[in-house]
Amino acid sequence: MRIGVVTFPGSLDDRDAQRAVRLAGAEPVALWHGDHDLHGVDAIVLPGGFSYGDYLRCGAIAALSPIMREVVDAAGRGVPVLGICNGFQVLVEAHLLPGGLIRNDHGRFVCRDQRLRVESTGTAWTSAFREGQEIVVPLKNGEGGFIADAETLARIEGEGQVVFRYLDVNPNGSLHDIAGLRNERGNVVGLMPHPEHAVEPGFGPDTTAAMRSGTDGLAVFRSVLEHALARA
């Protein structure tokens, strides 16, 4: 399976996402924001970090880049698309996911290992989890507060579109403790925490077993492989 990882000017977690794809057992394919071709990839990751134009509104300019026209079309055909942190912001700005993301309610950048609950396993990116499973992955953002109007929130909750929810502490003021969302079809998922930073022993969050041993994020990338095999 070939998974494309898009690099925007300013991206800083694209190589981490490529490594996560490789560790999960797939082939990472580097895609550039100015490309008009997805090069036949089977799934797409919009990585975290930053993107050009974020000073206007995070993800707003990147969502208009040439590659995003191809990503939107691919998502419409059912191709799995994952947006992490800034990638989540781009997905929202491209109207592939509902709501919006604003500056953290405390006004500060936050970086921490974050506990989450998996709320939905019916997506291309979460099928390897158990519903209700609690996981820990790193979180780092300055504009991660999820917002939506009351009607949209009711629809998101009613239709089971919340994929991940913050536990213990809400790090950015996200409404309903929402950490990640899916589209109605389940092929597009966005989340603020960084699963690509919890895929390899020695580099992930601390666990009761050992320091830096957490690999909960790897299941995100293995899920899409299982999803592809199930559809083959």
In summary, what is this structure?
Helix content is 23%, strand content 25%. The chain has helices at residues 14-24, 66-76, 86-93, 150-158, 218-231, and strands at residues 2-7, 27-32, 43-46, 81-84, 100-102, 110-118, 134-141, 145-147, 162-166, 178-182, 188-191. The chain is globular.
Task: Write a structural description.
The chain has a single domain, classed as Rossmann fold (3-Layer(aba) Sandwich). The protein is 23% helix and 25% strand. Helix 1 (14-24) packs across helix 5. It has helices spanning 14-24, 66-76, 86-93, 150-158, 218-231; strands spanning 2-7, 27-32, 43-46, 81-84, 100-102, 110-118, 134-141, 145-147, 162-166, 178-182, 188-191. The model has no long low-confidence stretch (mean pLDDT 95).
- Report the strand count: 11
Largest sheet, described in full?
Answer: 9 strands, mixed
The spatial strand order of the largest sheet comes to 2-1-3-4-11-10-9-6-7
Calculate the terminal CA-CA distance, rounded to whole Å: 11 Å
Instruction: Give the ordered list of helices and strands.
Output: EHEEHEHEEEEHEEEH
Strand residues, percent: 15-25%
Outline the low-pLDDT stretches: none
Quick one: overall form? globular
Give the rounded overall mean pLDDT: 95
Query: What is the helix fraction of residues, given as a range?
Result: 10-25%
Question: Tags for this entry?
Answer:
single chain; two-stranded antiparallel ribbon; 25% strand; alpha/beta; Rossmann fold; 232 residues; nine-stranded mixed beta sheet
